Amino acid sequence: MKHNSKVTAILIGMFLLTQIIGLLVVYAYTPQIVSVNVNGSIQNVTIDPLPAWFQQPAPESSYDSWRFLTSIFFAFAIAIAIIFLFSKYKLTGLLRAWFFIVVTLVTWLTIYAFEILAPFPIYENVALIIPTLIALPIAYFKIFKRNLIVHNLSELLIYPGIAAVFVPLLNIWTIIVLLIAISLYDAWAVWHSGFMQKMANYQIKELKVFGGFFLPYLTKKQRLKLKKSRALAKKSNNKIKDKKMKVSLAILGGGDVVFPIITAGVVLRHIGLIPALIVTLSSVVALFWLFAIAKKGKFYPAMPFISAGLFVGIAIAYSLFYF
């Protein structure tokens, strides 16, 4: 196992919690069909709870779904190019500003979704103000004030908001193609080019912002050494001298978290809640399996493993609930 059992359990727990939050957010933004009286006649009208400035034309045909998938690939390529260029030319200020805007918007979406799910009515103006008052401080402390707790807690809210934007554009077949493409890219970027490792180092050391869960921890040997030093210092009534100690890092990239949410969200919309939960559980099992077989000191692309679990989940969901 790459990390100790406690750290592994925390990572998997945060991953699972984010998936559950993501399903709730996707459910909150699922269009509802309501009956309204129009000039004396009852008509069914589809209402999209997603705020108008986030809405995109829903795919009306298979062609639209594939066209949207192409747009997603294009947007993904642009985002990677921007991050690469900004990091190459050390434009950390602009990159932080961009992250601040994105984090604010998607966190706002997640909080607003829970207002939709609230069992009591919230006035429209208040419903718009509350997420703003929460999202702005979260984004500020995450981007400009480095804090481990704020960072990881904010990650729970970021990826559900991102998923809410992309889920309406995809269907089962397009999400499968997207997962295959992302898995191939992830494997190439980690095992061949080393691009992922370079980007992670840049984000952690220079940008001071990392997209994903981030847990520094001491190994058992380091903890014993620190305990021994404290005991000696206490015995001799001396203070412990400041010494640098290399800390182990347990990280799980943002893409490894958001794509399972998008996949489960698509399954939720097209098949149902139980199938979506099966897909989520499959991704959790796949992630645990990766952590179990991974070796210390080596880097692994998580998406090929998670995607394999997602494919198994989709196959089970289809076989049990679709046919």
Polypeptide structure, described:
Helices cover 70% and strands 8% of the residues. The protein is mainly α and 323 residues long. It has one domain (5-31, 46-322). Strands 1-2 form a two-stranded antiparallel ribbon. The mean pLDDT is 85. The radius of gyration is 22 Å and the shape is globular. Helix 1 (5-28) crosses helix 9, helix 5 (148-166) packs parallel to helix 9 and helix 6 (172-192) runs antiparallel to helix 11 (302-322). A hairpin with a 2-residue loop joins strand 1 (32-38) and strand 2.
- Main beta sheet: 2 strands, antiparallel
In spatial order, strands of the major sheet run 1-2
Q: Total number of β-strand segments?
A: 4
Low-confidence stretches at least 5 residues in length (pLDDT < 50)? Answer: none
What is the residue-mean pLDDT, rounded to a whole number? 85
Going by helix content, strand content and strand pairing, the class is mainly alpha
Number of helices: 11
Please provide the ordered H/E string of secondary-structure elements.
HEEHHHHHHEHEHHH
- Oligomer state equals single chain
The rough form would be described as globular
Strand content: 5-15%
CA(first)-CA(last) distance: 39 Å
Overall tally of structural domains: 1
Give the radius of gyration. 22 Å
Helix coverage percent: 55-70%
